Amino acid sequence: SEWVIAVARDDRRDTASTCALWNCAGDGSDIMSAFRGAYTLPATLPGATDAPAGAVAISTTLLPGESRLWSFAIAFDFPVVEFRRPNGGTRWLKRYTEWFPGGLRGADIASEVLGRESELREAVDAWWAKVANDEDYPAWLRRAALNELYYDVFGGSFWEAGCLTKDKRYGARPGQHCSFVLESNVYRDCETIDVRHYECRHRLTLFPNMERDILLGWADFIMDEPEGRTPHDAGSPMNDPWFEPGQYLATFHGGKPLVLDWKDLPARFVQQAHAYWSYTGDDAFLQSVFPAAERTMAYLHRFDKDGDGIPEVRGQDTTYDTLGLRGATTLVATLVIGAEEALAEMAAALGNASAAAAHSALAEKARRHAEAKLWVEDGRYYRAALDGECARTVMADALSGQRFCEVHGLDDVLDPERMADHFEAVWRSNCLPQRHALAGVLNAAYPDGSLPENMQAAGVWPGGTWFVAAMCYRAGVRTGRPELCEAALHMGEGVSFALFEDESMAFWFGSPAIWYADGDPGTPTRYRSLQYQRN
Q1: pLDDT single digits (tens) 247-260
Q2: Predicted structure pTM score
Q3: Which string of DSSP letters, residue by residue, matches 105-121?
Q4: How far apart are alpha carbons 316 and 103 in whole angstroms?
Q5: Which of 110, 27, 121 is nearest to 73 (CA)?
Q6: Quick one: CA torsion of 101, 107, 111, 117, rounded to 10 degrees?
Q7: 182 with 251: CB under 8 angstroms?
Q8: What is the pLDDT of residues 457-490, one digit of tens each?
């Protein structure tokens, strides 16, 4: 690696001096004393250690009343990333090396920054100001939308420009570049497909090429998997990401992944693939990804044992892997209905009318049975599941499959009025009783507001809350119920307040996977897994 300190100099007026080595293990008095003598730096200092420590100074003469500004830059060049395994590591070039190839280029990077400083600053300001200054949205929403983008950089991010040690196994199309962020700094799974279902909208709109390449890589995984499973992740950095996918719970050297027949991942993949195609109109992508989308949904329907169109859940096999749901679940039902609607539209675009009709029929069958089996008339909500620990709860995220449908113009997954009633129940049972609605939405609560003794039910999922709030707001608009729009804004603002204003929580740029607002305001907050992809 290489680190560079640089300053932009006017050769006609400025004199620069540099020190290549000084004793950074000391208190800095040696280099400061040398500098104060003549206000220039010596080339090296006696007693300097081998630890890298440099310095740059600039001198000039000012006319009476004159002022000038100098820009300094700190640049670094780490061109290679390596994932270590017991039998040796896989080494990759980082994506930026396509623009700075051929070894260590830190000085060139610093020079480019200094040479284009005003242009770059103006471009950055113009980009974020579109969100920051848009008064059509409340300030808390603008702040959260921008702040949570930190995770694209600090979430263990990886983006490659070629593998140095072997040929790529997946994502090897010309011009395709694999990438990921970790699910979190605790759960070190790469680009977890269920978690990214909630946050990929920003990747789609800001970095659509990255979104395309990730989803094409998942299509490769599915076509290579013997049964057509959708893997949980692109691997673990403790093993060999983008070569060994599906490393769920194997986040240590030599860890053996827990192989599950996930009931939500295939549908989530299909919805994400449809979203990219719908947003971009990329028909080449559609042709590449459609066989994998059909294959993984056919695999998923093998677990529909009673023929109602809804694959049965067996406890640990959805994103809420300790919620204890069993049998038909509203979460899986809405995802499957949404995925089948997406497949129908994609098939029609490919000119396959019979496939489009078949997928529409599957969506309608699942929709009909979900309404009959999961709707609770006296409580006006969809129960979480037919059986299991939290089966009778009002689950905030149960209608997850609706969000992609409403954004991308597909049919509703369930009855719109009933879904609006469900969100009213979420507001009443899962939000209002908790810190006066100032901490987000609990994932699953009983209709009376009481909570099951389950850690995934009795906590607030910040990313899930924002997703639910978006659906609740949309339901209020569509059904003419402004009170739902107001409730949705309270839901979302509660998360933003907890993250960025409530000093007793003060997560800032460490938004966790889940927190427990079970204490009084002002008391420390329990949480799980700081810095989380879903948010």
Answers
A1: 887 766 666 777 78
A2: 0.94
A3: -HHHHHHHHHHTHHHHH
A4: 47
A5: 110
A6: 100
A7: no
A8: 999 999 999 999 999 999 999 999 999 999 999 9
